[in-house]
Amino acid sequence: MASVTMTVNGKATSADVEERTLLVQFLRENLRLTGTHVGCDTSQCGACVVHVDGVARKSCTTFAWQVDGAKITTIEGVANGSTLHPMQEAFRENHGLQCGFCTPGILMTLTEFLRNHSDPTETEVREVLSDNLCRCTGYQSIVAAAAAFPEKPIRIIVPTAIGGPSDLCIRTVTEAMYANLGQPLSVENITGATGNIGLERVATAAADALLTKLAGQPRLVLETIKRYRAKAAHLTPDMASEYAGTLMALVRA
User: Fold this and answer.
1) Fold of domain 86-147
2) pTM to 2 decimals?
3) What's the rounded Cα separation, in Å, for the pair 41 and 46?
4) From CA 115, how far away is CA 119, in angstroms rounded?
5) Quick one: fold of 2-77?
6) What's the mean pLDDT when you consider all of the chain?
């Protein structure tokens, strides 16, 4: 037996499993996350793709013990509550599925790919989809959904010349904001910045992203976000968690 601990869709989980237990089996049978499908058992169809520490990976040829300590995201963790991920919306609008069996794996493949490739060519999209088999659509509508993906990566500057609590706080706020927005993130490093400058940049960009995403919301919500944006210049590490929490509460309202 092997003892495994991992974070799945934001929730920590631990279990004792047989060493031969595959990740897909652990997700489906132990955690009852059945959106991850088994189609071939030979790592060819891609129906079993999940994210392991943000990277698309086939769970049918990965042992559960191999991802001990990792952060796993399955198709169940892609949406923000009842709000679909932009890639899911694009699939719905472009009829990117028929029977749906392959869809979870394709969505997981594309969300990781488009997070790192903001403006891919059709050839590049088709190439990354070569590891995902679909017997229904002929791929054209799937490619169209990828082309219609509405979000472009937001550029965030994370200073490298800071350390300790400030640096951790910047990364925590960044991850929390954009994980909940379901929005791809392009992180760049710079040097010579102080902790508070870094916090200001992250907090300001996060508020701007919310203002764009929630443009159709009531004026009171938008004005509240603007007031918090104005506080970004005065943020300290101990204030940042409250700042992020308040903005995310507005997103969920």
Assistant:
1) DNA polymerase; domain 1 (1.10.150)
2) 0.62
3) 10
4) 10
5) Ubiquitin-like (UB roll) (3.10.20)
6) 76
